[in-house]
Amino acid sequence: MTSNPNKPSFNTDRSRLFKDRFAQYSITAGGIMVLIALLLIFFYLLYVVQPIFESADVETRDSFPLTNAEQIAGLGVEEQTEVAFLLTKAGVVDFYSVEKQTFGKKLTSLPVKLDAKVSSFATSAPFQGQYAYGLENGSAVIVVPKFLVTFPNDKRKLTPRLDYPLGELSLAVDDQGAAIAQFAFSHYEEKTAIVAQTVDKRVMFSSFIAEENMFTGEIEWQVERTELDVEGRIDQLLMSPDTTRTFVRTANQIYIYDTRFPSDVELIQVLAANEENANLVSAELLAGANSLMLANDNGEVSQWFEVNTDDGREYQKIRAFETAKQDKLDIFTEFYRRTFFTTSSNGELGLYYTTSEAKLWQGKISDGAIENFAIAPRSNAALILADNKLTVVDIHNEHPEVTWSALWQEVWYEGYPEPGYIWQSTSASDDFESKFSLVPISFGTIKAAMYAMLFAVPIALSAAVYTAYFMSSELRKVVKPTVEIMEALPTVILGFLAGLWLAPLIEEHLPAIVGLLIMLPVGIIATAYGWTKLPAGIRHRIPEGSHSILLIPVVLLIGWLAFAMSGAIELWMFDGNVRQYLTNELGMTFDQRNSLVVGIAMGFAVIPTIFSIAEDAVFSVPKHLSNGSLALGATQWQTLVSVVLLTASPGIFSAVMMGLGRAVGETMIVLMATGNTPIMDWSIFQGMRTLAANIAVEMPESEVGSSHYRILFLAAFVLFIFTFIFNTVAEFVRQQLRDKYSSM
Prior knowledge:
By secondary structure, this protein is an alpha+beta fold.
């Protein structure tokens, strides 16, 4: 029996079917896994970012009654919120446990060493943790409650004690010995300053500088005193922690003194801070002491800080917060953040953040008036003295500085002349206020991508069209792999070359770079025109599709001429210094690592991507379309424009969008080739900071779980959204173009 040679083999069909299904399922599974990976990235970013938008919350931990509540002058709590201390008007410090197991248990009482009766009491800035008693003999004693930590039997134990940073001897504030009625003080490094009102209505500013006697080793105080000329009733005294500013509140006015030089105290401004039909009831310095918080009896709390004006730096009202209308409205500030609390006569507590203008929480804590209030060093708890009892509240307020408006709208920060978009996350100072506007780094991302695309798209698309349509097949086999292999070049190498070689080169030969933009197109067009005028015998010696080789010496010659003439052009047109001309004559700032450098360097990284995809799209246009057009009498250029480019337009558009996505997400080039300055300026001679570079620079130094850390993840999420939008738009437009020109 002979087999039929035309009958297909059953085994061959089963093998082919298996391979087809395996390929189908593998590709489908791969696509699904990619989609799942993208969704996991998306939701993980949301998971990390979500806590920064959680609302603040205040919960009562517990409370215990006090028999001497009316005698309490000041409150405080140690860092772990395990022990609270109460300073009495009699000069005794009582320590209580506020742990859950032993809550309300009195641990000990320690007397403050005083050499006269107490006449007044004052507290320092919260972060200094100092308290002082004014005495009837015109002196003052500064005391700091501290805790000795020991571990007997491997159990943590806190032993309260009192520390005297200036020694146990009191400081003579008034040389006439009059009792101190009220005062404010600050002990800063080796300098101590006290501003006090005596019972005979004098206001004294006293500065004490400690000096060690070189012979005896004893500390001697160098004292300078100045009497301040203040009219009216003195209601409150305040002093900045560094002792450079002193504030005197009298009725509805604030006298502001420059006290940097105790022998030459200067009144720099008088604020009329009350609003219409309202009176000033309290004042407090915000953390950092750059802002003055003022409360009126109409429930408004306003923030004031110094702003540059034509008359110098002056305090101006920046923003206001509305609270309940109260006769008694006190302000308390945190240790370092720009958060403040308000307490009122009806037992309400308010929690606010100044920079973001946010009311974080408001609620009723007690039935009676809140007499005193103290915040824990970590701002996670507070002590409230009200209704003759001490209440401890737990505060959940991890990210008060982050709001949607603070991230994306202009914010007026302390010390700045006007609102602006600012990113400045860290500083060497504890008083620094982080600035987390995502606008400048998002702007920098778009700016860097735009300049890179301006450089890359014309070159890449022109090269792709010429290579696919005009170039000979022999030359194309060399050019196409050569350009594509450029994509394997590490971007860190491009960034390194751009920062250390290209940036100084452009700075030194800026006229040559600008000249190349003009000379290269003109030279290439002139060469092409001259080629057409040569005899046909000479022109035909060059194989069809290989004419581009002739431009290599032309480009090299033009480049050499541009750099050779650079010095002469700079001397002739710019008096020998282009940078100085740009700055002085045009008002433009020139940074060595600027957008021009980034555009060129990142353009080289993007060119292979755009070239490869666009070249494949043009080369894949069916030959019968172009041949039919030529057969009907159209020229090569007419065929290219009207047939080839239209048919290849979906692929060309995809190439451009792929290049744009690559430029938006680029990290190392913009990291190394720019100054990483988060500014908003379209100037080609200034740098920028991008989302990707910002994440790379700051993520290693950010504290895990902090606002800074989570906002960097938010920046990554924004970058993710950017690329998602670009890719979605690209796919949509590509499909529209494909549907439109697929019938050709």
